[in-house]
Each structure stands twice: as structure tokens, then as C-alpha cells.
Amino acid sequence: MLIKIFNDEKIEKASIMIIGVPDAGLVGAIAASYIIKQLDMKEIGYMDSEKLPSAIVFHEGRPAMPIRIFKKNKIIVVISELPIPKEVIPEFSEEIINLAYKNKVDRIIPIGGIADQNRINVDKPYVVGAGVNEEDRDFLKKNNIEILEEGFLAGIYASIVKKCYRDGLKCIVLLAQAHLGYPDPGAALSIVEVLNKILGLSIDIEPLKKEAEELKVKLRELMRRALPSVRESQRGYEHTVPVTYM
Amino acid sequence: MSEIDDFLEKFYRLRRKFDKIFEDLESIFWFEKPMHDVSERCLEPLSEIFETENEMIIRMDLPYVRGKNDIEINVINNVLIVTARMEKRISMSNALSLCRGAYFSKFKKMIRLPLDVDPSKIRAKFQNGILEIIIPKKIRRYRIDIE
Q: Cα torsion for A228, B131, A220, B114, to the nearest 10°?
């Protein structure tokens, strides 16, 4: 996988790297895109692979790679506008780790949705956090975020977590209760609220509330396209009880 | 169950399998069926179908639909037809798509029902922008008490 960083942009030490890809309810991609817009982040590079679909997006008349890297101060956001095929997951997660090493990233925060059929009955989706090391779990506890105590994490974020665990990198995965097959800006909003709290940001959530229905209409096609890869990446594991310690 | 019912049920089961194969193919390739109909000014909602032992449950995401009075559910010749009026007209003016410039004012979805459900006992609720339709299955299993 190719990573291109424009003009040798330097990323400050002790940065936070947020990862958002299309997943259950497109939560990761919606939240990441909203953060980029609200913080007025600068595009500093992209990631590409021959194994990705031959597609390119256009924003404000300009072509843009589907997986892009943005930066503002000490925050880096990696966003994908296309579902990441399972063949690309290992190299994508390895490159995320390489990028983190190169730029002395302090903590990686993948964000996304956890599919829950009960989401229909919930106005405010909960957010759970999975911490890779003790420091991450203490950080989650200190911020009163429910910790994923038992269960599987699967798919692209699991691949990133495995590599962080292997290398001893700090990483917390934030997952909001979400619809599986409908774009879920409400769940993305819960993620943004948690990021505001834990990173001391002050991202206004009102515009996202106002845009929610428009996003739900306009992201229908992407959601339909993303759903098979979400299912294929075994996200169903997240509702499975692990065999040990029963 | 008569032989004709039995045949029709097998036929519809096979048809659903083929529909699923084509849906999967459409999701892989770019020539998939669009989720809009410009001539009818309607969008196809995203939907999910679940089955329990006794019920078939269909859920649809209906943004811009305000209440149950804006939704109509009919079953005609074993086809479930849902139409829902949106509060405002939606246009895809900036999209690189076939529907560029068109506007849409309603959702429409048609789903062929299996023969083992009872459309006369359909119930539905609309909550948080999601329509949930519950269709009971016909009772075809009986518990026999042992004397």
C-alpha cells in the first residue's frame, strides 16, 4: 500500500490519530468526515492500493483519493470514503501503524459503530471503548466510558488493535450503538461527543443534528455498497461470547 | 397444504434465492439497480428483513417522513408495497449520477412476501424514522400432547 504525504508535512509529537472507515451505519466515516469539516483540517496526504476499487471521488470539483489523511495541530484523521475490502485490511492496518511510528503518534483512536437491533428504540446511542493496554483502559475509566469487558472485535479495527497490542502502542476503539444497514448520524454524534470529552475538543454537534436526515438520504447508495463488506468482515463476532473465562 | 400451494411455495423460495444471488451480484458490480425512480419521483429506502420462528420483520429507514399518516402499506397479490411521503423534496443536484437535477418526494419499496406468512395480520409501527412491519407466519406446526 502506498502512503503519500504532501510536502513532507510534519506531524507534531504526541498526536492523536483518529481512524474512520465505512462500517455499521457508516458511523466511522460520518464522524470522521464531520470532525474534518468542523475543525477545518488540512489534507496532508492519502493512502492507495492496487487492490482498492478503481474509483476516485470529487470534492468541490477536485479529484481526491478515497483514503485520505488530514491534520490540524496535534490531531490526525484518516478517513476512507470507500469500504475497505478484506484483502486490503492487513496492509491498511500495517500502514496505519507505520504512519503512527513515523510521526510519533501517542494514541490511535479507531471510531465506528456496533450494530444493535435495539437501536430503533434508542434516542441516544451508547458508546463503548476497547482499550489495548492498561493505560488506555485507565483513560477510558477516568472519562467514564463503558469498557468493552468481554467479547470479540472483528474486521479492520481488530486488525489495527492486534498490531497495536503486538507493538505496545496506545489505542482505544470507540464504538457507538448503531443501525447495521442504515446510515446512522445519531451514532456518529455520540462518537463526536465522546471525542469532545476525552480530547478536550469543542466540536459543535448542532450542524450534524440538522444534517442528519439529509445524510441518511444521500448516503443510502454508499451504505448499500458497504454492507456486504461490513458483513464479510465478520462484525457479527462482536455479539459472540468468547470461549474462555465463561 | 395442497400440491399447488406446495409447488408455489417451493417456486417462491427458489425465486427468493435467485433474487438474493442477483442482489449480491449487484452489490459487487457497478451496474447495480439504482435506488431511485426518476419517472415516479421516488427513492428506494434502505431495508432489512429478519425472521423469527413466528414472524417476518421488515424494517425501512424513512428520513424526512414525519408520521404514520404519511405512510401507506398495502399487500397486493402477495406483494408488500410501502409508499411514504417526504416532508420536503430532495434533489441530487451536485451528484455525478443519472438522477442529476431530478427531485424526489416519496419513498417506495415493493417486497414479494413468502407464502408462509399471513398478510391479513400485518402490524406496523413507525419510530425514530424507522418503519417496522411485522408479518406473522402461518401456524403450520402443532404440538401433540401424549396421552
A: 50
- Whether residues B130 and A182 touch (CB distance < 8 A) is answered with yes
- Rounded to two decimals, the pTM is 0.83
Domain harbouring B92, CATH code: 2.60.40.790
Q: Are B26 and B83 found together in one domain?
A: no
First to last CA, chain A: 40
Residue of chain A whose Cα is closest to the Cα of B63? A213
Q: For A78-88, how does the pLDDT look when each residue is reduced to its tens digit (9 = 90+)? A: 999 988 888 89
Of B59, B63, B132, the CB nearest to A213: B63
In a domain, residue B51? The reply is yes
pLDDT of residue B78: 87
pLDDT exceeds 80 at position B25 = no
List beta partners, residue A76: A17, A71
As for how many domains chain B has, the answer is 2
Grid cell for residue A205:
454537534
In a domain, B44, yes or no: yes
One-letter amino acid identity for A30?
I
Instruction: Examine the predicted complex and report whether its ipTM is higher than 0.85.
Output: no
**β-bridge mates for residue B106, sequence order:** B42, B85
Q: Where are the beta strands (DSSP E) in A26-162?
A: 42-48, 57-59, 62-64, 67-72, 75-80, 105-115, 127-131, 146-147
Q: Which domain holds residue B7?
A: 1-33
Say how far apart CA B87 and CA B106 lie, in whole Å. Answer: 9
- CATH number for the domain formed by residue range(s) A13-232: 3.40.50.10900
